[in-house]
Specification:
By secondary structure, the chain is α/β, with parallel strands linked by helices. Helices cover about 30% and strands about 25% of the residues. The chain has six helices and ten strands; from the N terminus they run βββαββαβαααβαβββ. The longest helix is centred in the C-terminal third of the chain and has 17 residues. The two termini are about 35 Å apart. Bound molecules: adenosine-5'-diphosphate (ADP). The site of adenosine-5'-diphosphate has 12 residues, from β2 and α1.
Length: about 240
């Protein structure tokens, strides 16, 4: 298949309205275009809409208005089944609270999306070993999530998101539960995969130090994009 040309993922005029109380816009008129291999950092105070935006970009939540386009395919035109397939092959998500399957070991959790996508046993075992080594938890591979520390669970969750080499990795506060040394390691890891496998990252974080990795830094406030800067800190 020929390489996709154009933004790998984009969203146009995204709004998300929740009809609670007097009603609330979690997002309002958000536009974002991300090229292949870019590293996007989403900043903004708690409640500014970061998780909502990631969930909409990841196709696990639908917007009230607007469109998400991944490699030229509009989410609104896809059936739930087609969207699920697209998610499985093109998107890797790292959640704030890991969402590992408790009855599977680290190795099995990481290999799970690969098995769903039809990889062979050999491919699964090679990729899983490579990822475990990259994040430095080979010695924990047969442990269940309940037997792992928060930092270890987070690294397993990251390996799982990277397993199928998806085009886009969406990470929601991926270092929220880690100390600053571990946080740094995770961001270095993202940066390494971003460079070596040309994967696109969109990462929501509270940590201003992560801005040094950003090709695009987006600041959200009350569901709207307040500011957008390039890697030189220029407003765009
Ligand atoms: P952030 O990730 O920046 O902390 P969120 O995207 O989680 O922000 O939330 C944005 C706003 O939307 C918040 O005001 C939050 O309370 C609201 N919100 C999020 N999910 C729901 C929901 N399911 N129902 C009602 N309001 C929600």
């Amino acid at each position: 298949m020929s390489e996709w040309v154009g933004p790998v993922i984009s969203c146009h005029e995204i709004s998300k309205f929740y009809a609670v109380g007097d009603g609330l816009f979690a997002l309002r008129d958000v536009d974002l275009e991300v090229e292949k291999g870019q590293f996007v950092v989403l900043m903004g105070p708690s409640g500014s809409g970061k998780s909502t935006l990631l969930n909409i970009l990841g196709g696990i939540d639908r917007p009230s208005h607007g469109e998400v386009i991944l490699k030229g395919r509009k989410f609104s035109r896809l059936s739930e089944d087609d969207l699920a397939i697209m998610r499985r092959t093109e998107i890797g998500m790292v959640f704030q609270f890991f969402n590992l399957l408790p009855e599977l070991t680290a190795v099995e959790n990481i290999g799970f999306p690969m098995r769903l996508a039809g990889y062979t046993d050999k491919e699964v075992s090679e990729r899983v070993s490579f990822l475990l080594e990259a994040v430095g938890i080979e010695d924990r591979q047969n442990h269940y999530p309940s037997e792992l520390s928060g930092g270890e669970q987070q690294r397993v969750a990251i390996c799982r998101a990277l397993a199928t080499k998806p085009s886009v990795i969406l990470a929601d506060e991926p270092t929220g539960n880690l100390d600053s040394a571990r946080s740094r390691e995770i961001m270095e890891l993202f940066s390494k995969f971003n460079k070596e496998e040309d994967q696109t990252f969109i990462v929501a974080t509270h940590e201003p130090s992560f801005l040094e990795y950003a090709d695009i830094a987006v600041k959200l406030r009350d569901g709207e994009i307040e500011e957008r800067r390039d890697k030189y800190g220029r407003l765009i």
